[in-house]
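Hi! If you just cloned this repository, the fastest way to understand the data is to look at a raw example. We've pasted two of them here, unedited. The first protein comes first, obviously.
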Amino acid sequence: LDNEVAQLEGDALLDRQVLDLVSRDLSGGVPQIADVAQQLCLSARTLQRRLADGGHSFRSLVDEARRRLATRMLGATAYSLSEVAFMTGFADQSAFTRAFKRWEGQTPRSYRVGTRA
């Protein structure tokens, strides 16, 4: 049981570290797994394997980092939608809008209006 608890804590720590690194680098584009792995002193394959052991993928954590940053920016700032799209690593506003609708079930504009009401 102690080993299982330690494994779960390790998985959560790794997830948090990956989220932090990805979030920090999003405005420069979506970081590659090899770059994040290098910052964690791991090979890309080891990072993939350890994330999978915890039930996650690098892509899912990138999406989560983007979602968190987007909802925070839309709720608390006056950035334009295209600026939010850029800061979350999207090439254009339409790609951002599609992803946001997938995450939140509504458009970024609707989300912004709802959080300010």
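Ok, and the second one:
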Amino acid sequence: LTARVTVNRFWQQVFGIGLVKTAEDFGTQGEYPEQLELMNWLAADFRDHGWDVKRLMKQLVMSHTYRQSSKVPPELLERDPENRLLGRAPRYRMPFWMIRDQALAASGLMVTDAGGPSVKGYQPEGIWEEATFGNKKYTQDTGAALYRRSLYTFWRRIVAPTMFFDSATRQTCNVKVSRTNTPLQALLTQNDTTYVEAARHLTEGLLLDSNLTDSDRIHVMYQRVLSRDPSAQEESLLTAMLERSRLAFQESPEAAAELLAMGASPRNDSVDAIQHASWTNVCLAVFNLDETLTRE
């Protein structure tokens, strides 16, 4: 049973829904698995190979099932809307911690050290004081602690990190990630300090390389964030956005300075502020593409 439950949890993490849909209930009240033989084989293989989680995850993500296209013909969607028969690849909005870690990794800011104490990242000023009637004060960490993986983020039960949308209340155990889609989430991924700083840091490196053209920079950005090159239409749209941003920041240089001041990592002052702010805007747009936020 332990092996089955474990395999099902990892399958749920990778594919968005478990082989047993009721991951919290493997008893008589739970859902019968659509792929019982597959789950039993994975569980036995996982057990027989020393409960090796890395090996299991490699099996899942390198499988033909995972690497299928997520595009679905109408007849298959009608027959199997929840993809219980695994006729296509999963498609789902990634959880908050994946989205944050992805931005840090693409920008080069992420600190990948394993272990150690929890860290306190960026939070709105006074967030703890308001929730605890002034009894608790939030003190933000500095340096490398700000860029550690989301796994190490400090949580206070009554005040979850504000950047972690769809997070559980932690009053009871949750085995499934809830997924909602609201304008507040888009406002966060476009304006939160973590994402602005990641965009600023990524584009700073592109601008420091004088051998790159604007087209080259867009291509490198796409490779860093999406692992592919942009289409001609995408490149044209981003180039137009870049020009609009340049004009806007030329008229309002103080807005460029305010944008570039976000985040604790130092900025290289040799990079032109108008150019840097404009490219930061473009990078934020790429960070907020549906393709960036969605496993598909």
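That's it. A detail worth noticing about the second one: The first strand starts at residue 92 and ends at 93.
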